[in-house]
Design a protein that fits this description.
Elements (H helix, E strand, L loop, with lengths): L2 H9 L1 H12 L11 H14 L3 E6 L13 E8 L2 E11 L18 E2 L2 E3 L3 H21 L4 E9 L10 H6 L10 E4 L7 E6 L1 E10 L14 H21 L16 E9 L17 E10 L5 H18 L5 E9 L2 E2 L5 H14 L4 E5 L5 H6 L6 E3 L14 E3 H19 L5
Helix pairs in contact: 1-4, 1-10, 2-4, 4-10, 6-7, 8-10
C-alpha cells in the first residue's frame, strides 16, 4: 500500500469517527422515513467541498414517499484527469427503529472502548463514513487519477430499496457506461467479501370468513381460525421440508445455508386503533399473514411459491368454507458475483495487503441493494464490503469498531486505486 495513502487515512481517524457520529445523529428511521433530506444534504455538502458534483434525487411515487417524508437520495460524482472506469460506493442512510434494550441513547453516537455506539453504526453508516474517508484520502494522494468516482447515500434499503437504489437504477444511475464497478459497504466483516445474497419472496396471505356477533360465532365464520389452520399446516409440512434444503452458496451464518421462512406479521379482526383498549364483539371476517421466504440459488421461484399455494389449496379442499387470497409483495432472485470479477479481485488484493491473509467469500442471508444493481442496472461487477459485524445489525447497543472502520477504509482505498488504474480485469 502506498505509504502516503495509508498515512492519509490514519490521519483522518478522528474525522472518520466524527463523521460517523454526525450521521448517526440523523434519526433516519424507516418506516416512516424520517430525516432523509437533512442527512442526504449533510453528505452532499461535505462532498461538494471536496469537488464532487452533487445531485439530490427524490424517489417520487415510490412506497412511503410524501412531502412529509420525501425519499431523498444523494449522488456525488467527481471526474478524473483522463477517461477511465467509474467506481461507485453505495450506502443506504435509512435505519430500522431503535427498539428496546439499549444501555445508551441510540442516536447520541456514544464513543467508548474503541467503538461508536448507535442505531445504524454497523448497518451501515459506519460503512458510509469509511467509504467517504477512503475516497477523500485517495483524492488527496492521487490528484491525477483516471476515470470517475461516485458516492451515493440512498434510502429505504431496510424496506426493499424501492425509493432508493431501485428508483435510481431505473433512471440509469447504476448502468453502463455511467458505472463499471459497485461496492456496497454493508457490515459483512472487514476481511470478508460478500458476493451476493439469497433470494426473497414476500407475500401476503388473507383468509376469508363471515362477520357475526361474538356471542354467536356459529352464525359466522372465523377467518382467524382458518389462519390458525394455515399456520398449523406450515408447522407440520412446510417448515420441516425447508429445513432439509441445503445450498452450496457460502451463506453466513451457517444456519442460513438452508431455506427459511419467517412469519413477519399477522392481523385479524378489528384493530386496537378502531376500538382502543376494548375487545372486539365480532367474529373476524378476514385475517392477513405476511411471509418472508428466503430461498437458495438451487431453487426455482415457481417451486418456492407452489410449496405455499399447494398447502392453501389442500386446505381449501379439506376445510369447510376455507377460502384465501395471496398477493406477491416482493420477489428477488438470488445473486452471486463471480469470484473472478474485477471488483472482487481488487478488494481481495487489498484485504491481502492490509490483513496478510486470504479473504473469506460469503453470501448474505438477507438481500440488500445489490439486487437492484443487478436486476435493474445490469451491473454484475458488484459486491458488499464494509466494516461492522453482521450479527450486530438491528440489535440493541449496535456498534462499529473504530479500528475496523480505519482498516476497511484502507481496503476500500486500495481497491479503488486498482480498479481506476485498470490493474484488475
Amino acid at each position: 500500500m502506498d505509504e502516503n495513502l495509508r498515512h492519509a487515512i490514519e490521519a483522518r481517524t478522528d474525522d472518520l469517527v466524527a463523521l460517523t457520529q454526525d450521521l448517526i445523529r440523523f434519526p433516519t428511521v424507516n418506516p416512516p422515513g424520517e430525516a432523509y433530506t437533512p442527512c442526504a444534504e449533510y453528505v452532499g455538502r461535505r462532498l461538494a467541498k471536496r469537488g464532487f458534483a452533487i445531485e439530490y434525487v427524490r424517489g417520487e411515487g415510490t412506497p412511503g414517499d410524501s412531502d412529509r417524508y420525501p425519499r431523498t437520495n444523494v449522488v456525488a460524482r467527481i471526474e478524473g484527469k483522463r477517461p477511465g472506469r467509474t467506481v461507485h460506493f453505495n450506502s443506504h442512510i435509512d435505519v430500522v427503529e431503535a427498539g428496546d434494550g439499549w444501555t445508551v441513547d441510540p442516536f447520541a453516537a456514544v464513543v467508548k472502548d474503541g467503538r461508536v455506539y448507535g442505531r445504524g453504526t454497523c448497518d451501515m453508516k459506519g460503512g458510509l463514513a469509511s467509504s467517504i474517508v477512503a475516497v477523500e484520502a485517495y483524492l488527496a494522494t492521487n490528484p491525477d487519477f483516471s476515470g470517475a468516482i461516485e458516492i451515493s447515500g440512498t434510502v429505504d434499503e431496510e424496506s426493499g430499496g424501492f425509493g432508493g437504489v431501485a428508483y435510481l437504477a431505473r433512471k440509469g444511475y447504476f448502468s453502463k457506461p455511467r458505472v463499471d464497478h459497485v461496492i456496497i459497504p454493508e457490515p459483512l466483516n472487514k476481511d470478508r467479501i460478500c458476493l451476493g445474497h439469497r433470494g426473497v419472496w414476500w407475500a401476503e396471505i388473507e383468509t376469508k370468513g363471515q362477520i357475526a356477533h361474538g356471542s354467536m360465532p356459529f352464525l359466522g365464520d372465523c377467518a382467524v381460525r382458518h389462519m390458525g389452520a394455515v399456520l398449523d399446516a406450515f408447522e407440520k409440512d412446510l417448515f420441516p421440508a425447508l429445513d432439509r434444503k441445503r445450498t452450496a452458496m457460502p451463506v453466513v451464518p451457517e444456519g442460513a445455508r438452508r431455506s427459511t421462512m419467517n412469519i413477519n406479521s399477522i392481523h385479524g379482526g378489528q384493530t386496537e386503533d378502531y376500538r382502543p383498549g376494548l375487545p372486539s364483539p365480532n367474529v373476524p371476517d378476514r385475517c392477513r399473514l405476511t411471509i418472508d421466504r428466503r430461498f437458495l440459488l438451487e431453487e426455482d421461484i415457481a417451486e418456492v411459491k407452489s410449496e405455499v399455494t399447494s398447502i392453501l389449496d389442500r386446505l381449501k379442499r379439506e376445510r369447510p368454507k376455507f377460502d384465501y387470497t395471496i398477493r406477491d409483495v416482493m420477489e428477488v432472485q438470488p445473486t452471486m458475483t463471480d469470484r473472478d470479477a474485477p471488483v472482487v479481485k481488487a478488494v481481495a488484493e487489498a484485504i491481502r495487503e492490509i490483513f496478510d491473509r486470504e479473504p473469506a467469500y460469503v453470501i448474505s442471508p438477507g438481500t440488500y441493494d445489490q439486487k437492484h444493481v443487478a436486476r435493474l442496472g445490469h451491473i454484475y461487477d458488484c459486491i458488499a464490503y464494509g466494516p461492522g459485524i453482521l450479527d450486530l445489525a438491528h440489535r440493541p447497543d449496535e456498534w462499529v469498531g473504530i479500528v475496523d472502520m480505519v482498516e476497511s477504509a484502507k481496503v476500500m482505498a486500495i481497491g479503488l486505486g486498482l480498479l481506476l488504474d485498470g490493474k484488475v480485469d
